[in-house]
């Protein structure tokens, strides 16, 4: 068991974090979406450690974080659509899956051997400063054990991964609160995961509707859903009036009596920022009782919120 250092987001802490990354160690850091578990994306050994620390069962591909579009162009091929989206939404919570440039230098573990790579430029000042201090691409999934609720505070990272990683840079709570939107651009633009930038906003920028692909497909049977973001209590969705004994995670003014309310005014941005912290809190306070969640509208950030809630409620393996 190793001690996890908690580093402050000042020059000294960032230099120490960059140094650990250079030595192939794992460092968790804040982004505007969730805390990421970072490793040098060019090192097989460092990237393999991510899967080990998270207990991630499959070597599925990871998102590579870069400081700007210039660094992105060295790793992937950006067509006109990618350039337009990058200038509109980077830095920010949008991940683009693009053709991998030969000789990119990335570990094949990052892309799971695919000819494409997922890239994003995070908007958090601590993430930008760390990428600048490190000077290379950083692979980073969310900094939580596989299948558990994503971390939006350094304390969540400590609770899930202490003893398994070298350090966490504490940059306070994340402002967006759900992971980035993932857009496939290998062929027709395809929404692979709803996230921090609403699909409607991307459609408006591209001037065309998105195909719905991969993870984002509305499930037709609960069994098709991969359990993920799961608290230890069971989760019941679209509940307007909870049963006695249930912990009520509310949304909007109709849930004024809820135990916790994602946003009393019904603001989806506020609800996204609160989602993972409140799921963790609900799990702690409910202490094994079922968690009942109010309906959340399926537009804007509501699509990302409902995607995470459906996975939290899915049958456990
Ligand atoms: O907000 C976020 O995106 C956070 C923060 C830390 O930046 N990161 C995150 O990373 O959620 P991660 O590694 O958990 O996201 C990985 C997902 C995969 O499950 C897959 O859906 C998609 O990114 N992905 C990565 N590479 C891909 C590829 N080449 N083709 C298709 N999908 C890919
Ligand atoms: Mg994750």
TrEMBL record:
<dbReference type="InterPro" id="IPR050156">
    <property type="entry name" value="TC-AMP_synthase_SUA5"/>
</dbReference>
<comment type="function">
    <text>Required for the formation of a threonylcarbamoyl group on adenosine at position 37 (t(6)A37) in tRNAs that read codons beginning with adenine.</text>
</comment>
<keyword id="KW-0819">tRNA processing</keyword>
<dbReference type="InterPro" id="IPR010923">
    <property type="entry name" value="T(6)A37_SUA5"/>
</dbReference>
<comment type="similarity">
    <text>Belongs to the SUA5 family.</text>
</comment>
<dbReference type="InterPro" id="IPR005145">
    <property type="entry name" value="Sua5_C"/>
</dbReference>
<dbReference type="GO" id="GO:0061710">
    <property type="term" value="F:L-threonylcarbamoyladenylate synthase"/>
</dbReference>
<protein>
    <recommendedName>
        <fullName>Threonylcarbamoyl-AMP synthase</fullName>
        <ecNumber>2.7.7.87</ecNumber>
    </recommendedName>
</protein>
<keyword id="KW-0547">Nucleotide-binding</keyword>
<keyword id="KW-0067">ATP-binding</keyword>
<dbReference type="InterPro" id="IPR006070">
    <property type="entry name" value="Sua5-like_dom"/>
</dbReference>
<feature type="domain" description="YrdC-like">
    <location>
        <begin position="11"/>
        <end position="197"/>
    </location>
</feature>
<dbReference type="Pfam" id="PF03481">
    <property type="entry name" value="Sua5_C"/>
</dbReference>
<dbReference type="Pfam" id="PF01300">
    <property type="entry name" value="Sua5_yciO_yrdC"/>
</dbReference>
<dbReference type="InterPro" id="IPR038385">
    <property type="entry name" value="Sua5/YwlC_C"/>
</dbReference>
<keyword id="KW-0963">Cytoplasm</keyword>
<keyword id="KW-0548">Nucleotidyltransferase</keyword>
<dbReference type="InterPro" id="IPR017945">
    <property type="entry name" value="DHBP_synth_RibB-like_a/b_dom"/>
</dbReference>
<keyword id="KW-0808">Transferase</keyword>
């Amino acid at each position: 068991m190793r001690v996890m250092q908690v580093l402050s987001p000042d020059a000294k802490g960032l230099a120490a974090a960059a140094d650990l990354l250079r030595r192939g160690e794992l460092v968790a850091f804040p982004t505007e979406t969730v805390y990421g578990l970072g490793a040098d994306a060019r090192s097989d050994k460092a990237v393999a450690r991510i899967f080990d620390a998270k207990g991630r069962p499959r070597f599925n591909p990871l998102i590579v974080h870069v400081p700007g579009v210039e660094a992105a162009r060295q790793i992937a091929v950006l067509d006109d659509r990618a350039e337009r989206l990058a200038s509109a939404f980077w830095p920010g919570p949008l991940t683009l899956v693009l053709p991998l440039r030969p000789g990119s230098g990335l570990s094949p573990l990052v892309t799971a051997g695919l000819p494409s790579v997922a890239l994003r430029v995070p908007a958090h000042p601590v993430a930008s400063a760390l990428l600048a201090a490190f000077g290379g691409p950083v692979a980073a999934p969310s900094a939580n054990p596989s299948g558990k609720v994503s971390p939006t505070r350094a304390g969540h990272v400590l609770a899930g991964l202490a003893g398994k990683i070298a350090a966490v840079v504490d940059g306070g709570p994340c402002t967006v609160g759900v992971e980035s939107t993932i857009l496939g651009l290998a062929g027709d633009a395809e929404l692979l995961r709803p996230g921090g930038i609403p699909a409607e906003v991307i459609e408006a920028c591209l001037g065309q509707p998105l195909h719905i692909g991969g993870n984002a497909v509305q499930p037709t049977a609960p069994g098709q859903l991969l359990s993920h973001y799961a608290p230890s209590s069971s989760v019941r969705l679209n509940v307007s009036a909870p049963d006695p004994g249930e912990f009520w995670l509310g949304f909007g003014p109709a849930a004024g009596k809820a135990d916790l309310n994602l946003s009393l005014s019904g603001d989806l941005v506020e609800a996204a920022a609160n989602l993972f912290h409140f799921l963790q809190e609900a799990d702690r306070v409910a202490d094994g009782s079922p968690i009942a969640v109010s309906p959340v509208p399926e537009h804007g950030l509501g699509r990302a919120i409902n995607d995470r809630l459906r996975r939290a409620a899915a049958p456990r393996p």
